[in-house]
Amino acid sequence: MPPASRLQYTYIPVRFKKSKAKAKSSSSLESFGSFPINLSKYEDSMKKALDVLQTNYSKLRVDGATPAILDDVSVSAYGTETSLKNVAQVAVRDGRTLVIHVFDESTVGAVEKAIRKAGLNLNPVREADGKLKVPVPRSSKTTRDTMKETAAKEAESAKIATRLVRRKAMEEVKTLKDEVSKDDIKRIEKGVQALTDRYIKDITQVQQNKVHAIESLDVK
């Protein structure tokens, strides 16, 4: 599922306390552009929480060989810790095999060791010309259950992050109680809550999609 896009709203200026005109309703954060605080930053933060969840899910192996499962592997090379992508290129050979082209043959051993210790249940096999073949085994029922638990934890973390953004937004809006009308405060709080609900719903949907993919695994 693609990330939630920024909602499009009609611009509605904020009424300050001396104004008696009745403002139109809106569910927009962007519709409060004349508000003396930056509310759009909170929407950006909610979107970031969803983006992080989707990135983490992309690294959670469902089945088959995908280079993304090695994104977090760190290699000890040249006296420092570095990302695998800085010392090698990962490609798909077939549905259950990755092949790693190590740039410097002197670091093949370090790359092999890093993958074995990454907790991914992967065992590289050395080939010629600085290459490593990495067979990707079928998932077991235990592995599938663990992935579902991980997916749930990742989704809950995203929801917590989103609600924290909501709380910060609400706190900042309340600081303007002496500058703008109560109706405008309530209107913007309603917009913040609506946006929060939207992203929580999107997070839940992304989690459900991931769990469905995990449950569809052909386990051994």
In short, what is this structure?
The chain is α+β, with helices and mostly antiparallel strands. The protein has helices at residues 40-58, 108-116, 141-174, 182-215, and strands at residues 74-77, 80-83, 88-94, 97-102, 125-126, 131-135.
Rough shape?
Answer: elongated
CATH class of the largest domain: Mainly Alpha
Give the domain tally.
2
Broad structural category: alpha+beta
CATH topology of the largest domain: Topoisomerase I, Chain A, domain 4
Average pLDDT for all residues: 82
Mind telling me which CATH architecture of the largest domain this is? Answer: Orthogonal Bundle
Total number of strands: 6
* Radius of gyration, CA atoms, in whole angstroms: 24 Å
* CATH homologous superfamily annotation of the largest domain: Ribosome-recycling factor
**Alpha-carbon distance between the termini?**
28 Å
Strand composition percent: 5-15%
Biggest sheet overview: 4 strands, antiparallel
Adjacency order of strands in the biggest sheet = 3-4-6-5
Number of alpha- plus pi-helical segments? 4
Helix share, percent: 40-55%
Low-confidence stretches: 1-28
Order of helices and strands: HEEEEHEEHH
Descriptive account of the structure:
The chain has 220 residues and is α+β, with helices and mostly antiparallel strands. The protein has two domains: 104 residues, Topoisomerase I, Chain A, domain 4; 69 residues, Gyrase A, domain 2, CATH 3.30.1360. The protein is 44% helix and 13% strand. It has four helices and six strands, in the order αββββαββαα. It has a four-stranded antiparallel beta sheet with strand order 3-4-6-5, covered by helices on one side. It has a two-stranded antiparallel ribbon with strand order 1-2. Helix 1 runs antiparallel to helix 3, helix 1 packs parallel to helix 4 and helix 3 runs antiparallel to helix 4. The longest helix is centred in the last third of the chain and has 34 residues. The radius of gyration is 24 Å and the shape is elongated. It starts with 39 loop residues before the first helix and ends in a 5-residue tail after the last helix. The N terminus is likely disordered.
